[in-house]
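Dissemination and training. As part of the outreach component of the grant, students in the summer workshop were shown how a complex can be specified as a set of sequence lines and then modelled as a single object. The example used during the hands-on session is reproduced here so that future cohorts can follow it. Participants entered these lines:
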Amino acid sequence: MEKFAKAFPSRPLKAPKDRRWALAGVVGSGNLEVMFERNAGGPDRMECHVETSIPGYKNSWLAALADFAGHYPVGGTKVTIHDQGAAPILVTLRLRQAYNHLTKATT
Amino acid sequence: MAAADFTARRTNKMRRLGRIGKLARGKFVSPKNIADILKRIIEPGDIVCLEGDNQKQADYLANELAALDKKDLHDIHLVMSCITLPAHIQLFKKGMVKQVDFCFAGPQGATIAALVEAGKFPVGAIHTYNELYARYYMDLTPRVALIAAAQADRQGNLFLAANTEDTPAIVEPTAFSDGIVLAQVNEIVDKLPRIDIPADQVDFIVQAPYPMHLQALFTRDPAAITDVQILMAMIALRGIYEKYEVQSLNHGVGFNTAAIELLLPTYGEQLGLKGKICKYWMVNPLPTMIPAIESGWIEAVFSVGGEVGMERYTAARSDIFFTGRDGSFHSNRAMGQLAGHYAIDMFIGASLQVDINGNSSTVSKKRITGFGGAPNMGCQPMGRRHPSKAWLKAGAEANPGPGSLPGRKLVVQLVETFQAGRVPTFVEELDAQDPSIKKALHGVAPVMIYGDDVTHIVTEEGIANLAACRSVAERQAAIRAVAGYTPVGLKRSRRVTQDLRARGIVQFPEDLGVSPAQASRSLLAAEDIKGLVRWSKGIYDPPAQFVDW
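and obtained this result:
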């Protein structure tokens, strides 16, 4: 088990105000859950909290999260990740899916 | 000076046949005499072709050959497509082989690597399929060919059923050079459904005590396709199939391309691509193509081999598949590979390792697998002269010089950045470059597909258009940009990636209009084998190992 947190610079989030949070994935073997929440922090920062069952990959996590914050306007959000040994290739997909859910227009 | 003898091979063949005497009744041989027959028709120094590829095996003859004593079989020059059976390995362990020339050693890859290390694997070269067949007509013409057929009739004609595979490419050069062709057959019948090999080209026939081995090699259970593979399939469909309007193609055999096949009737229809892409295929009868075929996407499929369980389905869809006068499926590996070389807009497949220059390989230090057919298709055919929309469009992007072809085949590597067990796909240098492997192969590193031939690399991160890169440095940067969080990917520069993205050389899902939220298994036209059976209206008969209901 390894836990760490870090904030990354990002452009402010553009999403319907009523959408407070979004979730993608589940905590299960080889999978992970990613939750986005609007937070009270600065509008130009994505705050990340990662909890993973497989230690030793902190640098990869930080690089993936930094890239994500660079690609997408996610400033003003808090991202919580609970990982249970997901393949690295699944991480960005879940981030993108949660972001999709957060930003799509309310139906 | 003595007159040169220009018919020595014929005389020699007569001598060998003379040694058989009453061991055969005409062409027909009893299994109890097969060991004696093999001893009498093979001489030391012979080039012996043992039929066997990744699906079909002359396994009875291989077993009989491997059971001989070294005093009766030695110094043979073995030529064969695939070294896959324990009997093949026995030939090396017993020291019967003075040289081997082959294509692929999938399941025996680790054993071959160990034999190489022990100096017991005297390899001439590892080939691609058509390259080896071509040499059967040049400097590696077999003296003896041991082949497999489904049925023989009383005259000695052979029926090859769905799995024609390599057989004609082996028989022709052997039979027309005074070589000896010995066929194992599953049964001997009065009338064949159709004649695939005429009796004229066959010297001996033995009814094997057990049917030849046929491997279900191309059956991919949709249940094992992941969300990430579906995302990659969506990226490929938009960024390549749609963009270039790919009409004719070959798919590899992995789950990544199976995902694409299963997205055609769903995501492909949503995009309005039906009738615009993916009409002509050079591919085995893949069960995962059933939904696309049933939905009317596919015009024609030609195959290098059959697939266990697809017999009734292919016979009932004879507009799509090539079938004989008897109505059953026909394949041909040499001709299929030729079609895949010259006549397709796109080859797309996966690999185990890709280096920073786009070279790929399935060889690792402990596993020597070889090539098979991918390099024949995953390359630029320099002899191509006919245009197609995709070929010209890809060619224009590659900015051809005054001395080069105007078009390019799309050669696409579809890889996840990591393999199972967190092993990175992207590496600075291929394991295939290992000095001991190169030494065993006389200085040639076993590269599957060369970076210069690759036009695109697709990963879960996005697409790198290598053909549009203008320098080696740019190509390396484009590869790093889609290499994810592998050590190769972590070395990318954000500024350079942004520049490549601005120029369209690197594209991410959002640049292609791909929504990751849609990347879920529910997008597959069939989510399991049973779903494929349903799509086939009950005429696909999956092999027992895939049936869990």
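The longest strand of chain B covers residues 144-153. Students were then asked to discuss how this feature might be tested experimentally.
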